[in-house]
Amino acid sequence: MNPNVPASSGGSGMKIAILFGAVLALLAANIYLFYQVKQIDTELGKTRDALSAEISKMKETSSVSVQSNRRTVDSLKDQLERAQRLVSSAAGQARVDASKHADDLAAKLAAEQVKQQAALHQEISKVADDTSKANTQIASVSTEVGTVKTDVANTKSELEKTISDLKRTTGDLGVQSGLIATNGKELTALRALGERNYYDFKLLKTKAPQKVGDISVLLKKVDSKKNRYTIEVLADDKTVEKRDRSVNEPIQFYVSKARQPYEIVVNSVGKDQIAGYLATPKVQQVRN
Q: How far is residue 149's CA from residue 251's CA, in Å, rounded to a whole number?
């Protein structure tokens, strides 16, 4: 340290130097700050312009979109109005068609009802006529039933009288015969009695035997003046000759399937022919 320089003078110079340095630093900081502010202002200006341009563009786009939407809305409104007019017109036509259909249906129903009533009246009239006819027929049938009852009673009485007039006799085998019929009426009475099976026949004089019931009979000889005849009976593969027999005489023979004998009764003898019946037992069983 220079001894000739006062100590206070040295301290002041230092302070001035520091102050001067501070001023310079402050100035530099202000300059930098001004520069930064300028940059920021420039950037803000650019941003503001970009935003303005974007806002303008958005306004323009929005305006176009609004106009387009308005046109769409107007178009839809027109379509809606047309649809409403069409619906109104269709509804009106539907009401007209429904009314016409209802009128037609009512007319058809009325006509059908009239037709059904006419058919019903006709059916009732027919039923009445049928009932009248049925009553008449019932009365007639009642009369006929009464007549039939009377006829049946008379027939039964005659049948009982005919049966009571029939006779039993002994056959050519010596066996007691059943009731003997001498004509068609008596044969009918025997059938009604139901004690035996009866097969009437009319045999001609032929070379071959003829079937009667479950046997065969061959007419060999006829004497119409004396009412006599000769036959051959074929049963169980056996042949039995019944020679010179007379009218209404029971001709008896046995077969293997019956305990009681079969009987042939000839009621009439003509030229080369005989007529009568075969009587067989109702119960068929093998003889021991």
A: 39
CA dihedral 102, 104, 106, 109 (to 10 degrees): -130
H helix or E strand, kind and range, residue 176: strand 176-180
Taken in order 215, 221, 224, 225, the sign of the CA dihedral is negative
pTM for the model stands at 0.45
Q: Which of 110-124, 157-171, 219-233, 251-265 has the lowest mean pLDDT?
A: 157-171
DSSP output for 25-93:
HHHHHHHHHHHHHHHHHHHHHHHHHHHHHHHHHHHHHHHHHHHHHHHHHHHHHHHHHHHHHHHHHHHHH
177 phi and psi angles, rounded to 5 deg: -85, 165
CA 112 to chain centre: 29
